């Protein structure tokens, strides 16, 4: 599986696990924010929306008037742009991909200027860099900031696990250690299925790294993980 395809798969698959938390956290007050907060919660539930719907919402004047510091609504818009960006890449619409990428990069910068501890936006910034195939120091700094600003939130950890997995061997050692520790913690916290999904799609060298982490778990946790893995394989 190519890096771009893996990242797209991971972004789409991991989004479904975030819906419940998003529904709890997103409590916007304005009419416009209500609209985009609702769309964000539906998007994180992986409900089907057409590209036309996303484009119309992004072009809506309400979207243009929202404050950059309305992080709930801006995150919903960023998720829409990420979905459209992925779709443009899959369909080979390079001009559209570049345009959406620039918009998403600008939106991420604006949100982070207001709320520099928005871990999910740091992770979206990292994801966008990987879609471009840019594996620079800055790329990994984005991921490191996501860990630093949210080390213990399970819904973000699940997404980091999917998005970061194919790049594990490219990570600087401290970041690789953070990834491996979080992978083990996902299993300890009962996310065996999500951990097994990303493990099943990883390359053999990456799986070798992950097995060393799995072997540090207690026997019940290891058994739970391998049971989940076997279900995926069957």
The domain count comes to 1
Question: SS-based structural class?
Answer: mainly alpha
Strand content: under 5%
> What is the β-strand count?
0
Q: Residue share in helices? A: over 70%
Mean pLDDT: 79
Question: What separation lies between the terminal Cα atoms?
Answer: 20 Å
Number of helices: 14
Gross morphology: globular
Low-confidence stretches: 1-47
Largest sheet: none
Using only CA atoms, what is the Rg?
18 Å
**Order of helix and strand elements from N to C terminus:** HHHHHHHHHHHHHH
Please explain how this structure is put together.
With 234 residues, this protein is mostly helical. It has one domain (3-233). The chain contains 14 helices and no strands. Helix 7 packs antiparallel against helix 8 (119-131). The chain starts with a helix and ends with a helix. The model is unreliable at 1-47 (pLDDT under 50).
What does the secondary structure layout of this molecule look like, with pairings?
Blueprint: H1 3-15, H2 19-25, H3 31-44, H4 51-59, H5 61-65, H6 71-90, H7 94-114, H8 119-131, H9 137-149, H10 154-164, H11 173-188, H12 192-201, H13 204-214, H14 219-233
Helix pairs in contact: 1-10, 2-3, 3-6, 4-6, 6-7, 6-8, 7-8, 8-9, 8-10, 10-11, 11-12, 11-13, 12-14
């Amino acid at each position: 599986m190519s890096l771009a395809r893996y990242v797209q798969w991971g972004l789409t698959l991991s989004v479904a696990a975030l819906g419940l938390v998003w529904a709890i956290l997103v409590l916007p007050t304005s009419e416009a924010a209500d609209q985009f907060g609702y769309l964000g919660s539906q998007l994180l539930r992986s409900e089907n929306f057409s590209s036309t719907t996303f484009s119309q919402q992004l072009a809506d004047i309400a979207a243009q008037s929202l404050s950059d510091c309305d992080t709930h609504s801006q995150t919903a818009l960023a998720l829409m742009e990420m979905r459209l960006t992925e779709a443009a890449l899959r369909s080979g619409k390079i001009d559209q991909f570049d345009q959406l990428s620039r918009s998403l990069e600008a939106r991420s910068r604006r949100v982070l200027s207001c709320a520099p501890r928005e871990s999910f936006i740091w992770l979206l910034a990292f994801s966008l860099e990987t879609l471009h195939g840019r594996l620079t120091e800055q790329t990994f700094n984005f991921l490191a900031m996501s860990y630093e600003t949210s080390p213990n939130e399970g819904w973000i950890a699940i997404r980091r696990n999917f998005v970061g997995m194919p790049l594990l061997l490219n990570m600087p050692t401290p970041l690789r250690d953070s990834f491996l520790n979080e992978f083990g913690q996902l299993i300890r916290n009962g996310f065996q299925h999500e951990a097994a999904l990303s493990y099943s799609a990883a390359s053999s060298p990456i799986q070798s790294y992950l097995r060393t982490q799995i072997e540090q778990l207690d026997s019940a946790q290891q058994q739970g993980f391998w049971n989940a893995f076997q279900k995926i394989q069957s």
